[in-house]
Backbone:
């Protein structure tokens, strides 16, 4: 069974503190979801400058595809998703199987 890595790239609407709030929400809520193996988030620290205008990234590692499927409607996912939707100008989601 293959694991899945879920990547979310966000451009915030410019309101101060949205990224820090997203980090806190992700750390609080997402590890509570069955099948979530790890959660990482934050702004880019790259010196290459190829972020394409994105300000923040969330990476969630799942045990398998079924865990990803259960994550999307899960109540613990909703506060994170709602915060991103409310404060973002642009969002890209990319999932890959290992």
Residues:
């Amino acid at each position: 069974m293959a694991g899945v890595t879920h990547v979310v790239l966000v451009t915030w609407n410019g309101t101060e503190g949205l990224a820090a709030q997203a980090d806190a929400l992700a750390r609080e809520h997402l590890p509570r979801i069955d099948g979530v193996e790890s959660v990482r988030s934050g702004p880019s620290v790259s010196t290459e400058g190829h972020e394409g205008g994105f300000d923040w990234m969330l990476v969630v590692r799942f045990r398998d595809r079924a865990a990803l499927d259960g994550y999307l409607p899960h109540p613990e996912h909703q506060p994170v998703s709602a915060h991103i939707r409310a404060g973002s100008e642009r969002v890209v989601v990319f999932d890959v199987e290992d």
